[in-house]
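stuck on this one:
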Amino acid sequence: MWPNSSSSSFLLTGFPGLEAAHHWISTSFFFIYISVLFGNGTLLLLIKEDHNLHEPMYYFLAMLAATDLGLTLTTMPTVMGFLLLDHREIGNVACFSQAYFIHSLSFVESGVLLAMAYDRFIAICNPLRYTSILTNTRVVKIGLVVLTRGFVSVIPPILPLYFFPYCHSHVLSHAFCLHQDVIKLACADTTFNRLYPVVLVVIIFMLDSLIILISYVLILKSVLSIASREEQAKALNTCVSHICCVLVFYITVIGLSLIHRFGKEVPHIVHLIMSYVYFLFPPLMNPIIYSVKTKQIQNGILHLFTTHRVSA
């Protein structure tokens, strides 16, 4: 019989050995979180207000921005609460719910990037049928499929967490809850919870990245068949922002996976830093990438702030 645990909460962890610097570290995190909220919030407002951006490409970008906002708002309360207020305790239900949203939104982000690749594939390889294929109704359906896949697929490993007994140390290794952290503390048969997430990650991340790669191989083939060099450059330029976002997301995923799989001798602080990079770097960079590389976004931002300034 498993030893019974009377505790109904877990303890979060910051940066071991750097406790004295937590207030300084919190300043950096505060500015990063504010930048993420401002950047993605601006993109959402811009796409809503600017009718020139009411196209499938920008609808998918809005989905990406909303996903990044959701992921940021999921981790921000516990991270900032710990660093600023030294609030370490988190209730079981809050912890499991946070883990659910973190993992779900990560899969949603992968799905949105896949949908954006499909958008670019249709726009370049079948431009004459672009508007008839990617209608508003179809964009909504794609969005619902991406959301459903992300939020439903994570339920099987998260649900048992509410019923497992926890008899080990209740100290987690991050300032937020992750399934892989919580499961280490359970005193029960966790075979399913250890195997299912691995299979899920392989299926979703590897399948999505493979389809994205195939899409761009076909896109490149189509672009190279265009006679005009100027038209080739113009076609490829519409894909640059998405390619950068894909690289930012999957490089951080691969880096984090490699550290967890092969970095047994790597200092724990490196694992922590890679985790924060994975959760904060893509949401921080995505709005910047699209603002720098997409002329329509640049023009929309200038128009948005100019209009507000004139109104004021």
